[in-house]
Amino acid sequence: MPNDSHVAVRNARDMLQDARHIAVLTGAGMSAQSGVPTYRDAQTGLWEKYSPEQLATPEAMANQPNLVWSWMLYQARLMRSVEPHEGHKILGAWQQELNNSGGSLEIITQNIDDLHERSNAEVLSHLHGTTFTFRCFECDVPANYELPPATPEQLAATPELDQLVLEDPPACTACTHGFIRPDIVMFGEMLPQQAMDDALRAVRDADVALVVGTSNIVQPAATLPLAASAAGAQVIEINPKMTPLSEDADISIQGTAREILPELYP
Ligand code: APR
């Protein structure tokens, strides 16, 4: 049940203090305060402005490889150009401390950026892939492609599609007739099975599931907090807005990742 934030934070802090095994589930809201747009926030969300069908499906990539490739490259360059915030750093330190004392803090993220990794946290599972490894769109062979550093002009380019400088995806060096794509899960594609299996194991092992910055509507990620609860874990949500999880969470803190996480640890 959503509580008054101060009470909720105090109760969450008490609940987490004794937790030996914590599963942290993060969504786009975790990266928002680093400067990465979310998907569904009113006005600013990427899917409020563009349709996923146009930019994030295999069909779109097959039909307009250069538009989808350039869009994804823009996203990856933006994500690479921003920095982790205090909330990311807290999770990294918390994970370190629990690992050193025989406990665990396992991070399962829907995000395709590497902000958790760049704040010295290990990520157990990138449910929707990452935008920094690549494979062939045709033959699926991993591509040995390094994201080129962005020029100031490329970074300055706003995400308005009609201002994107279109680039063709590089050809696959294995099959030679395909082109490469980032290792992200596009709409309509299956999640990496290992990523989902690892995530389910972690939430079932957890004493507490900490759900940060997700609208909890995209499946199957949205089933994870419920799986945690069914296995006996307490569920704490951090989100400035109510979500479908808020009523079912043991504690729902209405606040942002960067402000609330430092209040929960150490
Ligand atoms: N701190 C915490 N939460 C925040 C913050 C913040 N600073 N800013 C926004 N939020 C919350 C919003 O209230 C919203 O509930 O983060 C959530 C972001 O929701 P979405 O934009 O839907 O992102 P997410 O839940 O991660 O989307 C899931 O959908 O498009 C696909 O693959 C994409 O991984 C993504 C998946």
Note down, in words, how this protein is organized.
The chain has 266 residues and is an alpha/beta fold. It has 2 domains: 1-36 and 84-128 and 191-266, Rossmann fold; 37-81 and 129-184, SIR2/SIRT2 'Small Domain', CATH 3.30.1600. Helix content is 36%, strand content 17%. It has 11 helices and 9 strands. The strands form 2 sheets. Strands 3-2-1-7-8-9 form a 6-stranded parallel sheet, with helices on both faces. Strand 7 (208-212), helix 10 (224-230) and strand 8 (234-238) form a beta-alpha-beta unit. Helix 9 packs parallel to helix 10 (224-230). The longest helix is centred in the first third of the chain and has 17 residues, at 65-81. The model has no long low-confidence stretch (mean pLDDT 93). Bound molecules: adenosine-5-diphosphoribose (APR). Adenosine-5-diphosphoribose (APR) binds at residues 27-29, 32-33, 38-41, 45, 110, 128, 213-215, 218, 238-241, 243, 256-257. Adenosine-5-diphosphoribose binds next to helix 2.
